[in-house]
Amino acid sequence: MQDRELILSIRDLDISFQTTAGSVHAIRGVDLDLYRGETVAIVGESGSGKSVSMKAVMGILDKNSTINSGRILFTYQEHGAAKTVDILQLDRKTIRHTINGRHIAMVFQDPMTSLDPTMTVGKQIMEGMVLHDRLGKQEAWKRAVSLLTMVGISDPEKRMKNYPHQLSGGMRQRVVIAIALACDPEVLICDEPTTALDVTIQAKILELIKRIQNEMKLSVIYITHDLGVVAKVADYVNVMYAGNIVERGQIDEVFYDPRHPYTWGLLSAMPDLDTNDERLYAIPGSPPNLMHEKKGDAFAPRNIYALNIDDRLMPPMFKITETHAAATWLLHENAPAVQMPEELRARIERMKEEAAK
Amino acid sequence: MSQALLKVENLKQYFRINSHFTVKAVDGVSFEIYPGETFGLVGESGSGKSTIGRSVIRLYQPTQGKITFDGQDVSAQMDKGTEKHLRTGMQMIFQDPMACLNPRKKVSDIIAQGLDIHHLYSSQKERNDKISEILEQVGLAPEHATRYPHQFSGGQRQRVGIARALIMRPKLIIADECISALDVSIQAQVVNLMKDIQQRTGCAYLFIAHDLSMVKYISNRIGVLHLGHLVETGTKDEIFRNPIHPYTQSLLSAIPHPNPIVEKTRKAMSYDYREYGVDYNLGTEHHVEGTHRVLATDDEYERWTHQK
Fold first, then answer.
1. ipTM given for this complex
2. What DSSP letter does each residue of B218-273 carry, written as one string?
3. pTM of the predicted protein model
């Protein structure tokens, strides 16, 4: 992987929201890189800020948000030349006209609410092409039909005239993907694309996105809380907690050699099919309320391995390998040697054995 | 084997939409639940798993079939004694912990509503003692009793829902997707709590979910439901080691494993009811081994077992 082409680079992103109950500091310094043709996953619980950071990339943050600091550098091809912009410096209208849909497209969680119930499926797919690419109606129709074929919808000509309520959940999500792909974007952001769907359909949609990614050389960002989904699709993983990225790395590094106690907790809280232990490991407590600023490491109150320093200073990212880093004081050279929980170690051993087969 | 706590025989639940169209949500389902065990019901959305739960606890009037709970028939018109027996002995935990708690009631009143209705205390003190005891059992503090639901987090609210079910000392709890609205780290807490409660009180669970890995973790026996038919039942080992029905196989293959190297190359099996040419109405129950049963015609059964 020598000449990877950097497409999107988020640096030190910091966002807060003004609410009636006070200011909520939702994103506290997020760094993220996305290279062409690769898949990055962001994992975290609800409220950890994974959706908000991606909404910032799309320029669709809510009105009560304030961006305190940060840069989002996006490189795209325009008229054959590469162009780099800082999305946070652009105004809403420019983002809407030049970036959204054309270069960065998004697939949302619930396919019923992200489609317009009063428009036919075909019209919704063609909308972007007519607006962005200035295609004629017939040309747009043809392309919409070929898109529907590509996302695996049988009898596409007939489906073009259907309304969203006439389609099943899996079909609707396929239509949403077709809309996202309509203007040939470079980056696809999938915000929990399969959470509202059944497992059998989830597997099909994930395989579909993967196939399309290979065909169109897309870069994909997945937002999810399901580690199984991450394992299936991602090349790189970012684990988020309380507005921070606490661990990042290549997928194999994070799954087979996790270093942050929160990642340990997430991995062991998921029952894999070989678990025969009587009790599941559960992270104690619940996610913090971001309304109250907390000094030091936000995860410390739920962390049985927390050190004294966690209450005073926020841990920086400690580099483990070139690509793998985690924000925990346990990796500091003066920290006591703490190993991951025994059950998790045994499970990872089991996973490695299975993988070696 | 001891006597079944709940016995469902050939349960049918139809919903008549208009004179031309009737939805057959549940179409001839039979299963048993024994005291102290957990029976997991899995299937995709629309397969009728929640409907079964609701018919069993008589939120619906079953169209046909017989439901026996603790020796008494609860499927037909019930007399007062039987109704009381059902309403106190069987309780339900719902999916969305925000929607299932009355926002205008204090937690103490929500929890004690069953006691109030059935007059199960003799003094105010006894009522309060019962509330504090149950709150402690589910990992909340007695002072939480005077708060309102909105003052709790999602996981805590689900604990209130469990406390409400538990205070009646039920023999059977129907848990309808009770963890799917919670965060991953909270899910594990709630599942552990449910297991602890089962060990302490010996109640049985009907655990309805679509997440197979959780179902496997908590259940003793599993029933796989598709389009209103119970296509396969058995202990969790029987189902996971030797799935016979193609739908069960596709369901098992679709679960993503948190193991990147394996997961990247694995392809999920697809199963289309129509393409396979299976008609569930023609199938009869075939006994595989132990408690493992499959719904199939003789011909299909022969084919599916020989593919192995």
1. 0.80
2. H-SEEEEEETTEEEEEEEHHHHHHS--SHHHHHHHHHSPPS-HHHHHH-------H
3. 0.85
